[in-house]
Amino acid sequence: MQTKKQSLIESFSNVTVGFVITMVSLHIIFQVLGIENNSGKNMIITIYLTVLSILRNYFIRRYFNQKPD
Question: Has this prediction a pTM greater than 0.85?
Fold first, then answer.
């Protein structure tokens, strides 16, 4: 079983990788779809999705750590 701190560290590690993937993916998909693309908008979208991802990962991990086998 993980501690709360370990769960948080795992979530941040997972989301850090996701952050980089999202920044690159947004750049690619916006170009493919013909959507105006700039780094500022990409950063705002990525930060928003990152915060949601951290919260989602943390709470799901905590739920499954508390759930009896």
Answer: no
CA distance 50 to 22: 9
Query: Distance (Å, rounded) from C-alpha 39 to C-alpha 26?
Result: 10
User: Helices 4-33 and 39-66, interaxial angle, to 10°?
Assistant: 140
Give backbone dihedrals phi and psi of 36, rounded to 5 degrees, phi first.
-55, 130
Nearest in space to 21 (alpha carbons), one of 49, 55, 40: 49
Q: In degrees to the nearest 10, what's the CA dihedral of 69, 14, 38, 34?
A: -50
Q: Is the pLDDT of residue 69 over 70?
A: no
* Residue linked to tokens 């690619």: 28
Question: Residue 31 has which token pair?
Answer: 């170009």
Output DSSP code: residue 67: S
